[in-house]
Amino acid sequence: MSKRTAFVVAGGDVDAEDLALIDPERDWVVAADGGALTLLDAGIIPHLVVGDFDTVGEHFAAQLAARGIPIRKLPAAKAETDTHYAAREALRQNPDEVIILGALGGSRFDHTLANLGLLEWLDEQGVQGILYHRSNRIRLVSGPGEAVLAESKFSFVSLIPVTAAAEGITTVGMLYPLRGETLLRGMTRGISNEIVGREGKIIIEKGKCLLVESRD
Amino acid sequence: MSKRTAFVVAGGDVDAEDLALIDPERDWVVAADGGALTLLDAGIIPHLVVGDFDTVGEHFAAQLAARGIPIRKLPAAKAETDTHYAAREALRQNPDEVIILGALGGSRFDHTLANLGLLEWLDEQGVQGILYHRSNRIRLVSGPGEAVLAESKFSFVSLIPVTAAAEGITTVGMLYPLRGETLLRGMTRGISNEIVGREGKIIIEKGKCLLVESRD
Q1: Are residues B203 and B96 in the same domain?
Q2: CB-closest option in B120, B187, B216 to A108
Q3: A114, B215: Cβ pair inside 8 Å?
Q4: How far is CA B111 from the centre of its chain?
Q5: How many domains does chain A have?
Q6: pLDDT tens digit string along B35-76?
Q7: Contacts of B136 in chain A (CB under 8 A)
Q8: A117 with A144, same domain?
Q9: What is the domain range of residue B148?
């Protein structure tokens, strides 16, 4: 049985290749504010659009409503971002995974960091979050746990600790093997590993890491 | 007395406005790998270039040497990134602050995250690190401590916890005031505050936050 995927499309940069991940027949899609423009430009009708519409304007909100697309207007002054709110809505669909597009590459890096934080928040809700952007696929790996790295377009694999330390890290099928080792936040040791076999694996005993698969 | 500033120029995206921060007469400048090209294109001669030269090539390394620019060739397989190595070299100059350019905006987001981590590493070494990129200025604020927000081109101020919690956060001169409050990593509450007076201030009692000043 295939995974039930909910997509969150935020207002940052989205590539055609990112959008091609969406199967409009099968996946549930929520847009956060400017992300709605990206989707409609690509001919994808979101199931819901949330936002304060500060970016796209009231006029656009009215257009969405006229097309029968459900919108939820949020106040500009609120305790979380539009994208966070959209991720909450995605969770209500009980998906196996939430894929976030448009999370990186906008002009404001605070939004990028907030979106990365959502991977940890989703993990705490018991759901796998994945963030795609052009040359990068980012997940959170939480110990005790593991992540499988299938053959893909991404050459590099990097581990970036989110907690002060990420302990008991073992890699399988990687160029620079780790064997039950500790990575410390702020150090750059986990950067630029590479898969050597058909499939790699990362095992982590304790702590949390961002797992970034990337290419030049 | 003005601050002694050491610049690290990494291989990511660098704007002319970012480069204008460098005073070649006064500041010490180290380039990490491809960052050397950025500097030379702008007519700035770095004091040192470090890297495995995987990006810019051996030929370029030879050119630098011919121009009398000190280079330190690092192995490709090493326990830290070129930029981290460059930041170590910057610290040897005993600067008051280390400003990192070209830390964001490259194609590989693992490098971006590693560069952000260097702000915490620098803080642990007792030196203020600042990362500039186009519409963003990013610092780490560590408790107990505070950060002053002078009037600037940046409209938005966001706090993103690096530790699981950042406690006792108080803001002065901000649109959405915080009064001794706790921010949790993964939540997006600290995003998009704004300075309302001539100067703002962030006070933090315990934990660490990234402080991002940004504009649209």
Answers
A1: no
A2: B216
A3: no
A4: 13
A5: 2
A6: 999 999 999 999 999 998 876 677 888 888 888 999 998 988
A7: 107-110
A8: no
A9: 140-214
3-state secondary structure at position A92: coil
Residues A145-202: tens digit of each pLDDT: 999 998 778 889 999 999 999 999 999 999 999 999 999 999 999 999 999 978 899 9
Q: Are residues A160 and A207 in the same domain?
A: yes
Say yes or no: B77 and B53 in one domain. Answer: yes
Q: How many CB pairs (< 8 A) connect A and B?
A: 125
A210 touches chain B (CB under 8 A): yes
B110/A192 Cβ within 8 A = yes
> Hey, is B192 helix, strand or coil?
coil
Indicate whether A53 and A114 sit together in one domain: yes
Whether residue A127 sits in one domain with residue A152: no
B165 and B202 share one domain: yes
B107-155 pLDDT tens trace: 899 999 999 999 999 999 999 999 999 999 999 999 999 999 987 788 8
The answer to whether B17 contacts chain A (CB < 8 Å) is no
- How far is A23 from A25, CA to CA, in rounded Å? 5
Burial A74-107 (b: 16+ CB within 10 A, else e): beeebebbbbbbbbbbbbeeebebbbbbbbbbbe
Q: In terms of domains, do A127 and A23 share one?
A: yes
